[in-house]
Amino acid sequence: MSVAQPAGYDRLLRTIRSSPDGKKHIAFFDFDKTLIAGYSAVALIKAQLSEEQLGKLDILQQFLAVGAHSAGLLHFDDLVKTSALMLEGQHEGDFIELADLIYRRSLRGMIYPEAAEVILAHKNKGHEVVIVSSATKYQIEPVAKELGIDTVLATKFEVDNGVLTGELHGPPCFGTGKVDAAKAYCRKRRKSLSNSFFYSDSLDDLPLLEVVGHPVPLNPDEKLADVAAENGWQTYIFDSRRKATFGDIARTCLMYSSIVPSTLLGVYAKFQGQPTRDAAQLAFRDFAGTALTLAGIKLDIKGEDNLWKQRPAVFVTNHQSILDGFIAPHLIQRDIVVMGKKEARNMPIIGKTMEAAGFIMFDRSSREAGLEACELAAEDVRNGYSLLIAPEGTRTYTSKLKPFKKGGFHVAMQAGVPVIPIVIKNAAAFWPRGENFVRPGTVEVEVLEPVPTDDWTVDNLSEKVEEIRGSFLRVLGQSE
After folding, report:
1. pLDDT tens digit string along 409-424?
2. pLDDT (tens digit, 9 = 90+) per residue, 300-318?
3. SS3 at position 173
4. In this structure, are 341 and 388 located in the same domain?
5. What is the side-by-side order of every strand in the sheet holding 26-29?
6. pLDDT tier at 67 (50, 70, 90 boundaries)?
7. Helix (H) or strand (E) holding 468
8. Could you say which of 185, 205, 231 is where a domain stops?
9. 398 close to 109: Cβ distance less than 8 angstroms
């Protein structure tokens, strides 16, 4: 029996959403190349070398062992034992610090944003989510925390009085060992593998794929793809962190280069007598829309009428992707002021256009600069401009919503204008943080009803901000 070509995560989400509800279901996920785009062990070895926790001879021995395993000359159990032995005598606390370092340096930039959406879809169905991996908890847990996963089944190192002994604690969580770990967890939770999902990229995980009720080959290697075709299993691909194609590179270059004709349009408007700020606003508006078109980004907008119910306003958006900086201005269209980081001034042509359009770019590390920016923004809003802010302050590595800063909300309160939330649902899937090139696709956007600020005060501002953030969480299907 053959299966269709690999499908994208949008089809996978539809499949999950149509699956049975209930807490009797578990969604098991492999880790490397399933939740992250690469191998965490490689990042770990590089960090051990740079932090001088291992010598060059130890690293060479490790790479030789990996090569021997890849060639079929060394069993995985022996490979893991080799890795454990090199850690003999190290303090577990130091190893945990190293794991946090590789998360910040490497692993958080390897997380598939689509994985976060798939995990959330399972949680919204009431399914339990568990990582089961041959990697160690030290590599996995920081990523699991970011993805909101509490349970990790992994290969364990033996620890004695806070020191790694160089031995394994039990068998590696690999192959049939992974099946044993999943079965034991199901028994503990009084659940069944027959009701469970398992996501994996590798043929090494075939033993567990064959015993769960819902096998899901995800980003499968060639051998697993062949087995999936033989078994009639639908395969899925996460596209966001794949290697850029020529088309991706071309689209991204065209996207940015469109600032040139847009700027010329603004110059023409200036020569026709329009004020400099109005001409620059026209140029930036044209740039935002043209860039999205050239990038292959379409918008599926819900609540578009809410964009025009009250002007001026303070528009608030979440921040997943570079695309947000094009999507939100394109939606707002006219008479807009943006508060953003001062580094944006350095972008060729774009920075000058933004300055001419009256956008406020300031040093976000300075409280004084932030207060001054808010005062300037409030004055603009009182003069009829709408403010656009991304109160998270920076892009996330997944779609997980971060805490909101209050500056832009102070502006809304001071100017007496409503707040209009713009919820961008899946832009990270097409241009995640850490990637240099855009992928084409359809971004879902929901514009919520304007929120009046008539009863806002300094005393209740934090509560009001949290209410608005709560509306974002509800639309995104997230919880704290």
Report:
1. 999 999 999 999 999 9
2. 999 999 999 999 999 999 9
3. coil
4. yes
5. 151-155, 128-136, 26-29, 197-200, 214-217
6. low
7. helix 461-476
8. 231
9. no
Q: Are residues 366 and 457 in the same domain?
A: yes
pTM of the model: 0.87
Buried b (16+ CB within 10 A) or exposed e, 276-311: eebbbbbbbbbbbbbbbebbbbeeebebeebbeeeb
- Exposed/middle/buried for residue 163 (C-beta within 10 Å: 0-12, 13-18, 19+): middle
The pLDDT, as a whole number, for residue 2 is: 46
DSSP assignment of 337-398 equals EEEEEGGGGGSTTHHHHHHHTT-EEE-TT-HHHHHHHHHHHHHHHHTTPEEEE-TT-S--SS
Domain count, the chain: 2
The CA distance from 251 to 480, in Å, is: 36
Is 2 inside a domain boundary? Answer: no
Task: Tokens for 440, please give them.
Answer: 């084409």
- Kindly give, in sequence order, each residue whose CB lies less than 8 Å from that of residue 75, ignoring residues fewer than 6 positions away: 69
Indicate which CATH number applies to the domain containing 193.
3.40.50.1000
Mean pLDDT of 253-265: 95
- How many CB atoms within 10 Å of residue 432? 28
Pairing of strands 26-29, 197-200: parallel
List Cα–Cα distances, 392 to 3, 255, 294, 403, 442, in angstroms.
42, 25, 28, 6, 23
* CATH number of the CATH domain containing 269: 3.40.1130.10
Query: What is the DSSP code string of 157-169?
Result: EEEETTEEEEEES
> Which of the listed residues 231, 262, 290 is the one where a domain comes to its end?
231
Same domain, 173 and 69: yes
Q: Looking at the structure, do residues 110 and 197 belong to the same domain, yes or no?
A: yes
Q: Please, which pLDDT band fits residue 364 given cuts at 50, 70 and 90? A: confident
- Does residue 210 sit in the same domain as residue 254? no
Return the bridge partners of 359, or none.
none
Residue 357: domain span: 246-476
**Do 311 and 222 belong together in one domain?**
no
